[in-house]
Write a structure and sequence with these properties.
alpha+beta; 150 residues; 3-stranded mixed β-sheet; globular; 6 helices; single chain
Amino acid sequence: MKLEIELIPSTAWYSNLRNKILKKEWDAIRKQSYADADYKCAICGAEGRLNCHELWEYDDQKHIQKLKGFIALCGDCHMIKHLGFAEIRCSKGLLDMDKLIKHFMKVNNVDKNTFDKCHEYAFKIWGKRSQKEWITDLAQWSNFINNSKS
């Protein structure tokens, strides 16, 4: 799958680099991710407004959430990555869930049944991971915190 649902365990929400560094440092990181992607969504190739998405790796045995890097994403791809948050926004009328599902299906060239299975699997993993406390490893980016607002 080119576009996958990546849900952050609820016990690790807001435990990210963006919330731990100065805005000017985050701006430099996000702008570099846009440049690295040639100012297009790194997944679907859409042009326009981009978001910088943190890429995480999870060690389910040691409960370590490790920052692996950053990727430039269009709004739809970014909302798929954070589908739980997107569903909350959809329930308030702020987003169109059908549009997001169609985007997922188009990018991955799959049907609605496949989306439903991916959705169910992602939330199953999220539920298990959300029962644990996570250590956040910011890897080489942790040096930004020493010079920031930590």
